[in-house]
Specification:
7-stranded mixed beta sheet; alpha+beta; 12 strands; 5-stranded mixed beta sheet; binds ligand MTE; globular; 8 helices; single chain
Length: about 325
């Protein structure tokens, strides 16, 4: 992913693909500068954490893929969560003391029901489901993850958005004490994401609270994070504290950081290359080092459920 360029850096100073490797060490040392793709960090002696509490009554879902899920170790030690560092194993290493309770979620904006809800009260009206989904990161790697979560469409309907609500915006916790990565300007904190109301009420997106039937690890976005399987992984905002129903398109973190490279829609699309690399193929994490990359599917293979949402949209312009 790109690192946000501070306002005083000119576009001409943005890092090119050819020098990002050198830049990476500089960025990892904490001196944030122009945009740079982070190469996956070496997986050095990472020991997976114990799983969280077992979740009760998780129903199976017809939306799950039959592909083999990644191991818990892959899923919980190879992460993007810039609030805990920029390397792939930084979230695992740095999020262990993070406190996902007590936790509140504020619902605000154009809806009949709004307010600040304790996590358990927020969850109470909804049924837990297992959704085994492919996740395709914009960096051209992918995983298969057995999430447990609640339907975002159910959540949206529960709060009764008014006709003014055209978008749903989400925000991550902002807490520099607990999230050391927020002491740097790697992104404009808090992390923000958003969906159109049509996307948010599609049956596929979930608010995930678990993995492999247990409470979601901190590094994956405890206690609750968004999962939108037909979009690049960066839409899957973690550790959500705010949900806002809006009449206008919300600002979103990676789009704010580098609009030329990360669009609002961020639909997985093998035909629209990232300006600095192809999106045609992907590396499945955990596959043999001898395995070839696999073809990336339009809408990450979920087109039958979501293609209709974009039938009047030019997906090259609205990437
Ligand atoms: N949410 C927050 N708050 N901060 C982040 O840095 N990274 C995003 C997304 N959600 C991110 C975030 C990116 S780039 C990806 S690919 C996914 O989380 C990774 O999710 P995972 O680590 O659970 O696989």
């Amino acid at each position: 992913m790109l690192i946000r360029k501070p306002a005083d850096i000119r576009p001409s100073e943005i890092t090119s693909e050819t020098n990002y490797v050198n830049r990476r060490d500089f960025i990892r040392a904490g001196a944030i500068a122009g945009g740079s793709l982070l190469a996956p960090a070496a997986m050095s002696a990472v020991v997976p954490v114990a799983t969280g509490a077992t979740l009760p009554d998780v129903a199976k879902s017809a939306f799950s893929t039959s592909e083999t899920p990644n191991s818990f170790e892959d899923i919980s030690t190879y992460n993007n969560f810039y609030e805990f560092g920029l390397g792939k194993d930084d979230p695992y290493r740095n999020a262990q003391d993070f406190k996902p309770r007590p936790w509140t979620i504020e619902v605000e904006g154009h809806a009949e029901k709004t307010g600040v809800f304790e996590f358990d009260d927020f969850m109470k009206p909804f049924d837990l489901e297992e959704r085994i989904y492919r996740m395709r990161c914009v960096e051209a790697w992918s995983m298969v993850i057995p999430w447990a979560g609640i339907s975002l469409a159910d959540v949206v309907k529960h709060f009764q958005p008014t006709s003014k609500a055209q978008y749903v915006a989400f925000e991550t916790l902002e807490d520099r004490e607990q999230m050391p990565g927020q002491r740097r300007r790697s992104l404009d904190w808090p992390y923000r994401e958003g969906l159109t109301i049509a996307e948010a009420t599609n049956p596929l997106p979930i608010l995930a609270v678990g993995i492999y039937g247990n409470a979601i690890p901190n590094q994956n976005g405890a206690p609750i994070r968004l999962v939108v399987p037909w979009k690049y992984g960066f839409k899957g905002i973690k550790s959500i504290v705010k949900i806002r129903f809006m009449s206008t398109r919300p600002e979103t973190s990676w789009n704010m950081a580098q609009a030329r490279e990360y669009g609002f829609y961020a639909n997985v699309n093998p035909e629209v290359a990232h300006p600095r690399w192809s999106q045609a193929r992907e590396r499945r994490i955990g596959a043999s080092v001898f395995a070839s990359k696999q073809n990336t599917l339009m809408f990450n293979g979920y087109g039958e459920h979501v293609a209709h949402l974009y039938k009047n949209l030019d997906l090259r312009r609205n990437f």
